[in-house]
Design goal:
Number of domains: 2
CATH topology of the largest domain: Rossmann fold
Oligomer: single chain
Distance between the termini: 45 Å
Number of strands: 10
Strand content: 15-25%
CATH architecture of the largest domain: 3-Layer(aba) Sandwich
Structural class: alpha/beta
CATH class of the largest domain: Alpha Beta
Largest sheet: 6 strands, mixed
CATH superfamily of the largest domain: P-loop containing nucleotide triphosphate hydrolases
Length: 273
């Protein structure tokens, strides 16, 4: 057994736009242990979402490698390869409503995933749907309704259940709670912690919210303009950041006695450096 569940080595991704080259991800790497959780944080344009898209195969890196259980993940070509990739890594996006078919009841959406990825018969799929909904705190009533009849938190739970239906090794959460009310965020975050403890799944949490990352993640990686500027145990990194950019992110979080002018000054100093 390999020492790491997920290994990312020296990933690079560039985009060409209007005659110029933008380096979206530049040499980023990290490892995720079995049952571990890592946060990838940074402002808009830092490369977080490009990282997520490369992890799940929506984007191919220009160079670098991604391994799950020691096996390199190539860009999937053909149906069999896509199904295999899906079992390695799944993703939950920020807006669950856009990722769910509005015409399909929740139970049917889960059934479609099980028909594609398992050999279960109709009865087996029905039992598994019940297990998945129970795992995310939902039940038979939610199975029979359309997504628009659910709250935002319930829809996000459905999106998590659908990702878990594939029985993935790694779950990527791309700003998965940022659109939810604070109380609902807490419910979903507790759910993710419970699922991680129960299943041993690895979590990669893409977020700009440092409070969320502190609560969920063992380790945190900070990205700025496509590059990793700091990485370490979450509490240590957030309590005693060494990189000026990480210090800027933390200074921008409102709190008692917070001075937004000091944040502006720190940003200007960082840009001049």
């Amino acid at each position: 057994m390999t020492a790491a569940l997920l290994e990312v080595e020296d990933l690079h991704k560039c985009y060409r736009t209007q005659g110029s080259v933008v380096e979206a991800v530049a040499g980023v790497g990290f490892t995720l242990p079995f049952g571990g959780s890592i946060g990838i944080v940074g402002e808009s344009g830092s490369g977080k979402s490009t990282m997520a898209r490369m992890l799940i195969g929506l984007e191919a890196p220009d160079s670098g490698t991604i391994r799950v259980d020691g096996k390199p993940l190539e860009r999937p070509r053909g149906r069999a390869a896509r199904l295999e990739r899906a079992k390695a890594i799944q993703i939950v996006f920020q807006d669950p409503y856009l990722s769910l078919d509005p015409r399909m009841p929740v139970g049917d959406a889960l059934d479609a995933v099980l028909r594609l990825h398992t050999q279960l018969d109709r009865g087996g799929r029905k039992r598994r749907i019940g297990e998945l909904l129970s795992q995310v705190g939902l039940g038979e009533r939610e199975a029979s309704v359309l997504p628009r009849r659910l709250s935002g938190g319930q829809r996000q739970r459905v999106a998590i259940a659908r990702a878990l239906a594939v029985d993935p090794r790694v779950l990527v959460l791309d700003e998965a709670v940022s659109a939810l009310d604070v109380s609902v965020q807490a419910q979903v975050l507790n759910l993710l912690r419970d699922i991680r403890e129960e299943t041993g799944i690895g979590l990669v949490f893409i977020s700009h919210d440092l409070a969320v990352v502190r609560y969920v993640c063992d380790e945190t990686l900070v990205m700025q303009r496509g590059r990793m500027v700091e990485r370490g145990p979450t509490r240590q990194l957030l309590d005693r950041p060494s990189a000026p950019y990480t210090q800027l992110l933390l200074s921008a979080v409102p709190r008692a006695g917070w001075d937004p002018e000091s944040v502006i000054r720190l940003r200007r100093e960082l840009e001049r450096a």
